[in-house]
Design a protein that fits this description.
Blueprint: H1 6-19, E1 26-31, H2 50-59, E2 64-66, E3 72-74, E4 88-94, E5 97-105, H3 120-130, H4 140-145, E6 146-150, E7 155-160, H5 178-192, H6 201-213, H7 218-222, E8 232-238, E9 242-247, E10 265-270, H8 274-283, E11 288-289, H9 296-299, H10 302-305, E12 312-327, H11 334-339, H12 344-353, H13 356-364, H14 393-402, E13 406-407, E14 413-417, E15 420-423, E16 425-429, H15 435-450, E17 454-457, H16 462-465, H17 468-471, E18 482-488, H18 528-537, H19 543-560, E19 563-576, E20 579-580, E21 602-603, E22 619-621
Parallel strand pairs: 1-10, 1-11, 16-17, 16-18
Antiparallel strand pairs: 2-3, 4-5, 5-7, 6-7, 8-9, 9-10, 12-18, 12-19, 12-22, 13-14, 14-15, 20-21
Helix pairs in contact: 3-5, 5-6, 12-14, 18-19
């Protein structure tokens, strides 16, 4: 679909424990995060959580998939558009820009889970909602460039102008069920008709959010408010505990030997404390772990590896998952002004004070690389030669001294700002219950204390901190210091995480009230040369020239440090022996999640045919 009571809880948990695995042809997946919403939030307006995207891979199928080998393959489209088959046309439009047209045909047997055909009306509906005035989309640049031409119920053309080099990776557009959501959308359109996106951004935001929520909350989905197009459909969501999905009989792709040989029921169990999740894995109530589950050190722990032989495989998938600390740089926030977070010297001092090499050695035996930019080493655009910040407390202290910081009686730095004496006490936010992140906070808090910086930890569950009314509101001082989390990147790198303005479309990428909180540059960094380089790079179809532009952009980024890079994660996956085709790679499905081929996941003992080998894409601990 998308491009991005107490007794009941006990009952479902007991069912998951008793029937996990091949006995009833089910699959129980353990995850450390729970989505805030699902399904109806098809533009990720309410939430952009990784766990949401992963689960939706079971519930919705793309027109064009992206397999573990980073290759396109048709799912709900009849074939992949190429220049050879005449479905892909590239036209030079001057100024170094190109226009791209892609013809797609929807499979004649594509159906929603209620049996209704998936048609171009659903594509038009998705397009109309995404293009709505003031819609707070995460990727405004995409919506500025894309256009749609519908020929009939099954055939349509997607147009990109200007085209970017990655527009042919995976599906060029999504779709949503007009027959389910259309009537409610008409009410929203009527209510929004006389609203001005510049003057009435908050009203529009509330209108749109309420629209998506009607089809996305656990309560709505348990009432049957939504339909699905993927290999599975949602059966039951017990908040705080689990989501259960069952086979969608209307999904058109049938795996080899017939779908009865493959997994019939998928249960996601949510155990936010990763230590408790590890216990559940060892105890046998989990068949496989999610991309958001155990930490790297837990995946290598003796208590797990000693139980592995004959029971499960442990895989480490090198990924494009960037663990980092974002920094609020909005000077309208008092704490940002007081601490000088919008001064590059402060950010450099903070990074010099964080013993990242010590962290990866202590927590990961040095097997996860320290990051120096936001682009992963597995990406061809990665620049290994940027400025690097070694752990050096003296350099950190010297930079802070330049800014007037001196240690006070309690050993904490202080300085005078606007006639007031302020202490260097900084807020540090991350996802509660994630053991490695909470340990990282403590590890870095000790480093910062050595140079006189006090840390105030302010954690909350992922559903809270990744909600758009928190993560997107740094400009309103919802968080005022440091925010540690991970971005999951794809081959479609465009620099938009740190652009202020996309020069190809004019879209502002920093979420504020003025643009209805669109974009993902949440910390508010601005560098005009970075914007120019990345805007030019995405137009460049010559790989060598594109790489040169991105290399320079990374050099600027490493000088300015809009965020503090930590490391690139290799995700651990624990998979019960005999489960086949549950495979992740750096870019499988676009973002590396397992489940991109949900219809093929099954148990060998039930006759499932192995098509994909995880050993090709990961390292194993045996």
């Amino acid at each position: 679909m998308k491009k991005v009571g107490k007794l009941a809880v006990l009952g479902l948990t007991a069912l998951g424990l008793a029937l996990a695995g091949p006995q009833d042809n089910s699959l129980v997946i353990g995850a450390s995060q729970e989505p805030r919403v699902l399904a109806g939030d098809f533009l990720s307006i309410i939430s952009n959580q990784a766990i949401k995207s992963e689960i939706e891979g079971y519930l919705f199928a793309p027109f064009i998939g992206f397999n573990a080998d980073s290759q396109n393959f048709p799912v709900l489209a009849t074939e992949v558009p190429t220049q050879q088959n005449g479905r892909l046309r590239v036209t030079d439009i001057g100024g170094g820009k190109k226009r791209l047209e892609m013809d797609l045909t929807i499979r004649p047997d594509a159906r929603w889970s209620d049996g209704k055909p998936i048609t171009t009306e659903d594509v038009q509906f998705y397009f109309e909602v995404g293009k709505a005035k003031g819609m707070p989309v995460l990727n405004p640049d995409y919506w500025e460039r894309v256009n749609l031409r519908v020929r009939d119920a099954r055939n349509f053309t997607v147009i990109f102008e200007p085209a970017y080099y990655y527009d042919t990776y995976g599906s060029p557009i999504g779709y949503a069920p007009k027959h389910i959501m259309g009537a409610e959308w008409e009410k929203v359109k009527a209510a929004a008709r006389n609203l001005d996106p510049d003057k009435d951004a908050e009203k529009l935001n509330e209108l749109y959010r309420n629209f998506f929520l009607k089809f996305a909350t656990p309560q709505a989905l348990n009432r049957g408010a939504m339909v699905y197009s993927g290999a599975f459909k949602l059966r039951r969501w017990v908040p705080g505990n689990s989501i259960e999905m069952e086979r969608n009989p209307h999904f058109p792709i049938k795996p080899e030997g017939g779908e009865s040989r493959y997994v019939q029921r998928v249960v996601y169990r949510f155990i936010q404390n990763t230590n408790s999740l590890l216990v559940a894995v060892i105890g046998g109530s989990i068949d496989a772990t999610s991309s958001v589950s155990l930490t790297f050190d837990q995946g290598r722990s003796r208590q797990l590896t000693s139980r592995a032989p004959g029971r499960f495989d442990i895989w480490f998938v090198p990924g494009a998952i960037w663990e980092h600390i974002d920094v609020n740089k909005f000077e309208n926030c008092q704490a940002v002004r007081d601490l000088g977070l919008n001064d590059v010297r402060t950010r450099r001092a903070l990074l010099h004070a964080l013993n990242r090499e010590g962290l990866v050695k202590a927590f990961f035996d040095g097997l996860q690389p320290v990051a120096h930019t936001w682009i992963a080493p597995v990406n061809p655009l990665f620049n290994p030669n940027v400025r690097k910040y070694e752990f050096d407390l003296k350099k950190a202290e010297a930079l802070l001294a330049e800014m007037g910081w001196r240690k006070g009686p309690d050993g904490i730095l202080q300085r005078t700002v606007g006639g007031r004496t302020v202490r260097f006490e900084i807020e540090f936010v991350t996802t509660a219950g994630n053991a490695i992140r909470e340990r990282t906070q403590q590890f870095f808090a000790e480093d910062l204390k050595k140079i006189g910086i006090a840390v105030k930890i302010n954690n909350a569950p992922s559903a809270v901190v990744f909600a758009d009314d928190y993560i997107q509101r740094a400009s309103e001082c919802k968080w005022t210091g440091l925010f540690e989390f991970a971005w999951v990147s794809s081959l479609a790198e465009d620099g938009s995480l740190f652009q202020y303005r996309n020069l190809n479309t004019g879209a502002i990428m920093v979420p504020t009230k003025e643009n209805n909180y669109q974009g993902q540059n949440i910390g508010g960094w601005r560098n005009d040369e970075f914007d120019r380089l990345t805007s030019q790079a995405v137009l460049e179809f010559d790989e060598a020239k594109r790489k040169q532009l991105f290399w320079r952009a990374q050099e600027i980024w490493a000088e300015e440090l809009p965020a503090l890079p930590l490391y690139f994660r290799a995700n651990p996956y624990v998979v019960r022996k005999g489960l086949v085709n549950y495979v992740a790679s750096a870019y499988a499905g676009g973002y590396g999640y397992p489940g991109w081929n949900a219809w093929e996941i099954g148990w060998e003992s039930r006759g499932a045919v192995k098509k994909w080998d995880q050993a090709k894409y990961a390292l194993s601990i045996r």
